[in-house]
């Protein structure tokens, strides 16, 4: 399976990128076949950060397994936890209080903004600009502080529990979120000034890594990667969970399918997330933040599936229950894995310098791909 | 001719966009108050961690060296990693009644993921999260902590 690094009989050069490479954002190993400077084939090799999370979850109870999912897609850990909480609620038919639903969606959208901010900084750094990274982290820091204040942790929150949230929101939460929104809106012009309108950046991104709508569907792409190719796939719109059915927002769509389209989709999504937060933040209803649940949760016998929209795409949880306190089998469908599978198609025929830009535009989080 | 015009306009636009970006750099170079980086560890005294911050599990004791832990092992069952191990003993009260009490409450900081499930499970609020975060030590055996203080007793009225 592993091809030797060197030259083939055809005169092609085979090189390794990773597992230790700064632009793969983790331990991703790519075996690249090159003809001169042109990429002929990209073969991702996974398994360097496999922690057997699915198998681990089989030995944990329905309350305990949620915290592990924060460690998969650590940039949208709230949304992963949300999916796990939703599936347990679906199985036990727990009615979640309105207040809890509002808090969850607010935190989800804050997580999405934070994730896209980090992606924006990392993307600019991948194509050679270092300053945007620090600007992105400055804004992300404010969200992290809000998370720290309300959830007690900055990255792996474990705030969503079956039936609602672990705590009520912090008394200062509404004020801090509003402050952040005003702060972030004032800084968004910097984003456009420094990166979006830069002709050098656009030249690196436009018509690079093009994927058509048909191919995006057949590779199973989801999230901004598929939406940039014109696929309508936002789970928040198609099968709304919690209070997403009550808020007005638009699905960010582009048709070009290149790196710049993916860039634009994510920038639009940040604006749409802010729109959702604006609608919810003033109307958080009074009431309980957690439904009353039994001390020991047992899902009835059967199989359950639920999916949510993370910052990277469609994240699904599939549970087979035998009626015990722990799941019999659990399977996570992660968006990063499907998006990575399209990398070979996108890079074929492009130059090796574009490979890093394409990988950056896919927004890969390796622990999500390789659970 | 049009090629030359395109070439010059591309160079002009690129240099212009770089200057626009550099203007932003110059702005922050001259506006020191907008810089948000902190001088850690020099600012340790001023660090203000939120009260919900999950740093480490501790067991608060009052002035009479009394805690609220009854040894029900609810936290031990709730923990996903086996971080908590409670060794119980039987105290004999002056009336001659046997009563379950904790002997040692062992907490493995090296296994803990700060998921807060033990705090939620505790029926008597005996344990809570502390706002410490500088956990590095020279030997890993220092991570294994006994949370109840020596000769501590169960607080009156906690069942």
> How does the helix and strand content of chain B classify structurally?
alpha+beta
Q: Into which percentage range does the β-strand content of chain A fall?
A: 5-15%
Low-pLDDT residue intervals, each spanning 5 or more residues of chain B: none
Order of strands, main sheet of chain A, comes to 1-2-3-4
Beta-strand content bin of chain B: 15-25%
The quaternary structure here is heterodimer
Looking at the structure, what is the overall shape of chain B? elongated
**What's the number of domains of chain A?**
1
**Count of separate DSSP helical elements of chain A:** 15
Radius of gyration of chain A: 21 Å
Tell me what the CATH architecture of the largest domain in chain B is: 2-Layer Sandwich
For the biggest sheet of chain A, the summary is:
4 strands, antiparallel
Shape of chain A: globular
- Structural class assignment of chain A: alpha+beta
| Strand runs of chain A, count | 9
Annotate the secondary structure layout.
The complex is a heterodimer of chains A (371) and B (159).
Chain A: E1 6-7, E2 13-17, E3 29-35, E4 38-45, H1 53-57, H2 66-69, H3 77-92, H4 98-126, H5 131-151, E5 160-161, E6 164-165, H6 173-196, H7 199-205, H8 213-218, H9 224-227, H10 235-238, H11 259-281, E7 302-309, E8 314-321, E9 329-333, H12 335-341, H13 343-347, H14 352-362, H15 366-369
Antiparallel strand pairs in A: 1-2, 2-3, 3-4, 5-6, 7-8, 8-9
Helix pairs in contact in A: 3-4, 4-5, 4-11, 4-14, 5-6, 11-14
Chain B: H1 2-30, E1 56-58, E2 66-67, H2 74-78, E3 84-92, E4 98-108, H3 117-121, E5 128-130, E6 144-146, E7 153-154
Parallel strand pairs in B: 2-7
Antiparallel strand pairs in B: 1-5, 3-4, 4-6
């Amino acid at each position: 399976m592993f091809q030797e690094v060197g030259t083939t009989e055809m005169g092609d050069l085979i090189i390794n990128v990773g597992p230790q490479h700064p632009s793969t954002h983790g331990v991703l190993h790519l075996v690249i076949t090159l003809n001169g400077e042109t990429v002929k084939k990209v073969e991702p090799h996974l398994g360097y950060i496999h922690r057997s999370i699915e198998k681990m979850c089989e030995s944990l109870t329905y309350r305990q397994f949620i915290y592990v999912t924060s460690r998969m897609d650590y940039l949208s850990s709230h949304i992963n936890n949300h999916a796990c909480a939703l599936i347990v609620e679906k199985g036990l038919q727990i009615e979640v209080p309105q207040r809890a639903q509002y808090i969850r969606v607010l935190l989800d959208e804050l997580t999405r903004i934070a994730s896209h901010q980090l992606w924006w900084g990392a993307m600019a750094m991948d194509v050679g600009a270092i300053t945007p990274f620090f600007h992105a982290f400055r804004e992300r820091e404010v969200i992290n502080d809000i998370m720290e204040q309300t959830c007690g942790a900055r990255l792996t929150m474990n705030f969503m529990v079956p039936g609602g949230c672990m705590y009520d929101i912090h008394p200062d939460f509404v004020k801090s979120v509003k402050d952040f929104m005003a702060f972030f809106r004032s800084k968004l012009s910097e984003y456009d000034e420094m990166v979006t309108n830069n002709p050098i950046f656009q030249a690196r991104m436009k018509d690079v890594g093009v994927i058509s709508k048909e191919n995006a569907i057949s590779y199973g792409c989801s999230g901004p990667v598929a939406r940039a190719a014109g696929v309508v796939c936002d789970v928040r719109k198609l099968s709304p969970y919690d209070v997403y059915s009550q808020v007005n927002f638009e699905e960010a769509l582009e048709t070009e399918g290149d790196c710049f389209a993916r860039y634009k989709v994510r920038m639009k999504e940040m604006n749409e997330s802010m729109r959702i937060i604006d609608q919810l933040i003033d109307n958080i209803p009074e009431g309980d933040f957690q439904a009353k649940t039994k001390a020991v949760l047992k899902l009835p016998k059967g199989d359950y599936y639920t999916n949510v929209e993370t910052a990277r795409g469609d994240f699904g949880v599939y549970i087979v229950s035998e009626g015990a306190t722990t799941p019999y089998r659990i399977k996570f469908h992660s968006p990063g894995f499907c998006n990575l599978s399209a990398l070979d198609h996108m890079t074929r025929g492009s130059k090796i310098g574009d490979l890093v830009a394409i990988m950056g535009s896919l927004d890969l989080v390796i622990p999500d791909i390789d659970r | 001719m049009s090629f030359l015009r395109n070439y010059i306009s591309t160079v002009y636009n690129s240099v212009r966009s770089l200057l626009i970006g550099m203007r932003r750099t110059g702005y922050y170079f001259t506006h020191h108050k907008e810089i948000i980086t902190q001088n850690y560890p020099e600012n340790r005294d001023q660090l203000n961690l939120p009260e919900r911050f999950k740093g480490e599990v501790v067991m608060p004791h009052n002035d009479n060296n009394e805690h609220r832990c009854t040894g029900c092992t609810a936290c031990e069952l709730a923990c996903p990693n086996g971080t908590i191990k409670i060794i119980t003993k039987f105290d004999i009260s002056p009336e001659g009644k046997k009563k379950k009490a904790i002997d040692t409450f062992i907490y493995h900081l090296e296994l803990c993921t700060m998921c807060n499930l033990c705090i939620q499970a505790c029926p008597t609020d005996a344990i809570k999260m502390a706002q410490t975060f500088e956990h590095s030590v020279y030997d890993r055996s220092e991570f294994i902590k006994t949370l109840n203080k020596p000769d501590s007793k169960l607080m009156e009225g906690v069942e």
